[in-house]
# Entry
Amino acid sequence: MKKSFAMLAVLLSALTLITSVGTLPAPAAEPEVPVINLAWDFDLHGGALLAAVSKGKDFKDSGYYLEPVVEKQQYSLFKGDKKIALINTIVTKGSSETAVLMGQKRIDCCVNSSTGMMCAKDQGTDVQILCPIHVDGICLVFPAKSKVYGWEAVEKAIKSSKAPFRIGFHSPTSAPRVLIQAALTRAGIKVSLDPNDKNTEVVLVNLNGSKNLMTSLSNNLVDAWVGPSHHPELAENNGFGKIALKLRDFPPKGQWYDFPCCVFAANRYVIKKQPEVMKGMVTLLSYSAAWCQKNRAAAAPILAETIGIPEQVVKNAELVFTTKPTKKWLEGEALYVEMLNQLGIFEGEMKGKSFKDVKEELFNFQFISE
# Structure
């Protein structure tokens, strides 16, 4: 009997404890934060973003930092010690695919070529470029055993080809594609996208993604290809190709320096709805780009590991990390608008418009610190 009473007392005590705990206030739920879908790729042109995700809390002095939730897929963006956004990252084949996804509102912001964002704008996507993330870093690659180097040698190779010379690119709206067509056209070379055009001197070939650049020469798909760093440097390092022209060598000489390529851009609805998040990303990218440029020796192994390429490849690349929209950079963007119109790539909102016509709508530098 005593045992029964003792057991009953224990049960009543436990029930009382459970009941009392049940009446305590529930722990406060983690506050909801906006979820931002960000398009990127693992190449050196996105180095400022890749360094930011790799360095994480080490970049806290910028006022913002990224902390991994799932490596290379999802990150929390912090302002100081406060989480302000959850960033989902999506790998795309290039700026053309990104432009489509942004138009569908499946992507909110991106690290992609400025020409791709211009084409997205042309297609009706309300996108704005918030800052550059680097300049330069585009090369023309010939077969590994080629002895061609410099514009005169490249021009000779094109002119002496019995059939139209085939040059590959990774995305129709990419900066390398627009650049090569602009440079060749200005040099008096006839360029076409039609593989059956026998009267042209150069046929440009869409290789559908940067991953296909490396094997395109060995598979005889093209005679050369133009692409963004790190791909030309990797091709040379691995024996898949040889750099025949660096950006500064493209015709006309002296034109191609501090030349725009990749940018951080966002749909305008995200800029309006989440200005704190966009400011955080631009501020962090600016801090990261400056760190990468100033500390190239320290940045090289970090970027090499993140991308999955040899460290020497990063060291060989000549692109400049920066988020400053300089006068020369804006001149390059104006040239892009001009060339995209001349080439007939614009078919919608940007068609027939000058840089002056589109500048205020296309660019938004409000988050860049002076």
Remarks:
- Residues 1-29 have pLDDT under 50 and may be disordered.
- DSSP finds 14 helices and 13 strands in the chain.
